[in-house]
C-alpha cells in the first residue's frame, strides 16, 4: 500500500531516525525490573509472566518497547514503516542478547501475519499518521488471539493540532472542525531532536480520528475496553504557554487497553 500517505510517513521517520529524534533512541539500560516499570504493565493489570507470549510492537520501531518485552521473556515482533527504526530494534536486541523478529511495512496492511498470531499488540502513538483508524483496527482484530490485549496510545482528538504555541493569554483556542480525517500539523517540539545538528525535517502530518470513530471502530471489531487514561504532563508548576501547562489544560494523548472478545456482542444480542 505504497500510496502518498505511506511515502510521507516513510520519508519523515527515516529523517527522524537520522536526526536521532527522541522516539528513535534505543533503551540500552534496562533490566527485567526496569523493563516492567517502563511499560507500566501492572497499571494495565498485566501481572503474569510474559514468557512465551507473542507480542507485536505495532508501528513501534526504535528499540524501546521491543527491548523491554524481550527482556521479560516475550516472543517479540516489531512492525514499522522505517527500516532505520527497525535497525535500532535489532541493535537493542543484540545489546541484550535477545531474539526478535523485525518486519517492515504499513500498519494498514498486516497481511504478512497469520490469523490469531498475537497475545498482545502494543501500539504506541502513531494511529493518527493514517487517515482511517478503522482499517488498522480490522487488521489488528484478525491477527489477535481471542482474549488478547491491544494497547493503544493516540492523540486526544479534541485537541488534535493544538500545542502550547496556541496560548492566547487566556487559554488554548480550538480552531479546527471536529471531523474524521481532517489533516492537522504542528511544529516538532524542541525536545524531539537537535535542530542545530539536523537539516529541517518536514512537519508531522496527522489525521484527526474522532473519539466516536475510535471507540465504535474497536467495538465493532470485537474489542472490549479494559482500561482508559487521559495522559497529562503533571508538571508541578506549569507556566502558561509552556508545554507542561498546555498538557495539563488540554491532555494531548489518550491511552487504552482493549481485550479481544469477538463473540461478546453476538452473545449479548442473543440473550
From TrEMBL:
GO terms for molecular function: methyltransferase activity. It comes from the Bacteria. The keyword Methyltransferase applies. It holds the Pfam family Methyltransf_11. Keywords: Methyltransferase, Transferase. Residues 56-150 form the Methyltransferase type domain. One of its GO terms (biological process) is methylation. This is Class I SAM-dependent methyltransferase. It comes from Paenibacillus spongiae.
